[in-house]
Design goal:
Blueprint (H helix, E strand, L loop, with lengths): L1 H17 L3 H10 L2 H13 L1 H4 L2 H18 L8 H15 L1 H11 L1 H18 L3 H20 L9 H17 L3 H19 L9 H13 L3 H14 L5 H12 L4 H13 L4 H17 L5 H21 L5 H23 L5 H32 L4 H6 L1 H21 L2 H13 L2
């Protein structure tokens, strides 16, 4: 009988605790003792009466937001902001009209929005991009809920989407898992498209258009590439990035003087871009010596431009042998072309013989210029140790090719001693 009596007492005590009045929750909230307020609201909502009371859930949202704010200083992974959001949603479901009034007057969900966003930013700055993206997704859920209920915020949350897209892109860049990479790239595209499709043009958003244009050209989506690269050019006319990407599409039409004009336009915008200059020189070299296109006047202009671009490259990157060897090759190939012209003159008339003599002088001048460039490259190659040359196969091959070209230049000029010296040196490079 005593056991039954104590059991009944325990049940009555438990019921009295969980059915405590909402006034106790309000009192705890007003005292700003968030630990006790959390305990009070949890007990109230555990009861049948509290579970269906919109005010109880509304207070839970308020109290949990305060608890989350305290935790946020030390815990970047806590879920309390999300619990606060869920509580506000529950209150709104139970009593739409009352919650609408409080939301419009006090906007308590805004604190949840910024609480989640700030945790996301802290994770982002700590390079914990996975956690950052999770928090940004949660922030967006809160933001869309606020906007859709007309309690505040904006239709397009540009800053949030910029950080979300960039966090996803960084996860993709840091991953070696092809599934993760693909998933995160698409996530990044989703957020960046939201910004780009509204043509947001603040300077800090240029990365959005760059990423979209690059992604679509890499993935052979020509239509989308053209759309976003054109948008990028329109909104950022001084940014050469979009023109650089577009060069690859232009090359599909073939290397031409029109393509060279586009290169010139890019260089005007970004004169210190080594790679656009070296690619420009390489395309001109291919056009002039491989495809042998253009009139003689056009060829002379292109040859001068090759020299200008390669000299600029050497100034931008003095320790790089590529501009020097390519310049040497340009002079050497020009000499070969002149030699063909020399050999084509068969007449022995004084006029024709004078032409041959003049061409011979030009050939010698071109070969001497080639030697100057090759020997400048040689000074850089000779700084490499034998061990380094063994590891760097491409550098070793370029080194050997430069020695061979020097041997050929001196051979044509009639200096057999130097020709043999460079040839023997080339043979020692293993």
């Amino acid at each position: 009988m005593k056991k039954l009596f104590f059991s009944v007492l325990a049940i009555l005590f438990f019921q009295s605790v969980i059915s405590q009045d909402i006034k106790k929750v309000r009192s705890a909230f007003d005292k700003k003792d968030w630990a006790k307020a959390k305990e009070a609201v949890d007990l109230y909502l555990a009861g049948e009466k509290g579970a269906g009371d919109w005010e109880g859930w509304y207070y839970k949202g308020l109290i949990y937001a305060q608890v989350a704010n305290e935790l946020g200083k030390e815990n970047l992974n806590q879920q309390t902001w999300q619990e606060s959001f869920d509580a506000f949603k529950k209150a709104h479901t139970i009593n739409v009209d009352n919650v609408n009034k409080f939301m419009i007057i006090n906007s308590p969900l805004i604190s949840v929005y910024y609480g989640l966003f700030n945790i996301g930013i802290q994770n982002y700055l700590s390079q914990n991009y996975e956690n950052a993206l999770t928090r940004f997704v949660e922030t967006d859920q809160v933001g869309r809920y606020i906007y859709e209920n007309k309690w505040g915020l904006y239709e397009l949350d540009t800053l949030l989407y910029l950080y979300s897209g960039d966090a996803a892109a960084k996860i993709a860049n840091n991953s070696k898992d092809s599934i993760v990479i693909k998933k995160m790239e698409l996530e990044s595209i989703k957020y960046f498209k939201r910004i780009a499709d509204k043509e947001i043009s603040d300077e800090s958003y240029s990365i959005v258009y760059q990423y979209l244009a690059r992604y679509f050209i890499i993935n052979s989506n020509k239509e989308e590439f053209i759309k976003y690269s054109n948008l990028g050019r329109k909104l950022y006319p001084n940014d050469a990035y979009f023109d650089k990407l577009n060069i690859e599409l232009e090359k599909e039409k073939g290397i031409s003087v029109d393509l060279f004009q586009k290169y010139e336009s890019i260089i005007q915008k970004d004169p210190k871009d080594y790679y656009i200059r070296i690619n420009y020189a390489n395309d001109m070299f291919d056009w002039l010596y491989t495809k042998q296109k253009g009139t003689e006047k056009e060829q002379d202009i292109v040859f001068k431009s090759i020299k200008d671009q390669l000299n600029a490259c050497s100034q931008l990157d003095p320790g790089n042998t590529d501009p020097l060897t390519m310049l040497g090759n340009s002079y050497f190939n020009a000499a070969v072309n002149k030699q063909d012209k020399f050999n084509s003159i068969k007449s022995s008339t004084p006029t024709e013989q004078k032409k041959k003599a003049d061409i011979k002088i030009e050939i010698e001048g071109l070969l001497k210029d080639a030697i100057i460039s090759y020997e400048k490259a040689l000074l850089i190659f000779e700084k490499y140790t034998a061990e380094e040359l063994k590891k760097e196969r491409s550098i070793r091959n370029d080194y050997k090719q430069t020695l061979y070209q020097l041997s050929e230049c001196y051979k044509v000029l009639g200096d057999t001693k130097k020709s043999e010296m460079y040839l023997k040196k080339e043979e020692t490079i293993k």
